[in-house]
Specification:
4-stranded antiparallel β-sheet; 8 strands; Immunoglobulin-like
Amino acid sequence: MKRRRGDEVELICESEGYPLATMTWRDRSLRNIKSNDTTIRTPDQLFQVTSKITVKSSDKNNYTCALVEEGEVPKGPSARFDIPDETDLPAINSKCNTLSIALGTSLTVAMIIAAAIFGYRRWRGNFSAALT
């Protein structure tokens, strides 16, 4: 699955094997969906089929792609995509996270340096007092 522009996502099914098979896509209501398919022949003389559809992530639906061998009904391996469940990943604002990490690291380093200076001065004061 790939995010596209706006609220669109591209669903992708791939298969490799012999004999040549096609992919069918259906939605939850078992309606056929037109797909964009490509087929290439591999060096091993297998068929590699890639099938793609674009759907709106805001539509609550599920989509299934299935292999079909020459005019038969879908059978064998299939994949199911649940929309929008699979697209509800939290958005990460990397600028905010990077800034927080940099600021936190800087403050931690500054506190360690301040503690080291304070400890050194205190130790040196106790050491000077012991000499006199």
